[in-house]
Amino acid sequence: MIAHTEAPGRFEFADLTPDIILDAIESVGVFPESGLLALNSYENRVYQFVDEHKRRWVVKFYRPQRWTDAQIIEEHCFTQDLLDNDVPVVAPERVNGSTLHHASGYRFALFPSVGGRQFEVDDLDQIEQVGRYLGRMHRVGQTTTFLHRPAFSIQSFLTDPAEALASCGMVSASLHNAFFGTLEHVISQASSQFTDTPFIRLHGDCHPSNILWRDGPSIVDLDDCRSGPAIQDLWMMLSGDRQQQLIQLETVIEAYEEFHEFNQTELALIEPLRAMRMVHYMAWLAKRWEDPAFPRAFPWFGTDKYWEQQILALKEQLSALQEPPLRLTPMY
Fold first, then answer.
1. Is residue 96, in this structure, part of any structural domain at all?
2. Active-site residue, from 69, 81, 221, 223
3. pLDDT in tens, 163-185
4. Concatenated DSSP letters for 156-177?
5. pLDDT tens-digit series, residues 184-211
6. Domain that holds residue 72
7. Which residues is 109 bridged to in the sheet?
8. N or C: which end of the chain has fewer CB within 10 A?
């Protein structure tokens, strides 16, 4: 087993200076020629640069103490496994025999820089192509299990986040009862509907921003890969009203099943998983609030207006949880 390497405290990305970043990159024999362009990432710190050979790279510095070395390397191995099986993911480069590196107490990895525009969730042709690749991804994902990465669970995506929100002190007294009362109903409903289903290795966070498009999809950022139901990587392809979502769902699953069978009972997990994502996201912002990058990026978080919007969103989600799940047409 790979030992966990201790790293700086939770909010010490402020210590990650340009000199430390450049020294870290150069320590593995890659020499930046350009400056460092910060990319849109809050959980980690990610920079694009060009080396002395005019090759474009992306370097990711992992948030300290979030994952162990073993969990990060398991993510890297899964990504490489997918790439070896013709799934268009962006995998970390093996430099000096390793994909995970250490410098000044930080852990980092180097990736090839890929361009592209964002995947368009209302384009059925693009949804179809993504569906095929997700089918390939899950065909690979179900061949073995994660030993170190976590799994989707009510505890980690509902119970623990709710406790974090209750203890953060950011919900004003005037909204406290309305927010936590509605949250309690959502958690109860979602928990009762999150039934047992086979878990496989997943991307875990396959939202449209993690799919780049240039003559086809490139799937990026498996930082949240974990075990879970296959539908977790599919439901975020859906948008619009119920009828639009049904058309998108039929498109993605028809393409998906060219490579991997889909278990239709998992359709009942879409709204519980959506609820889990909502609650987890709110708690993520609260837990990261001491990181100076978060107040700058999310200045609206924690205001009364924000919690009022979340109360409304939770009520709408509770209504969605009480509706019958989406169902495919009989041809499926």
1. yes
2. 221
3. 999 999 999 999 999 999 999 99
4. IIIIHHHHHHHHH--S-HHHHH
5. 999 999 999 998 899 999 999 999 999 9
6. 12-113
7. 60
8. N
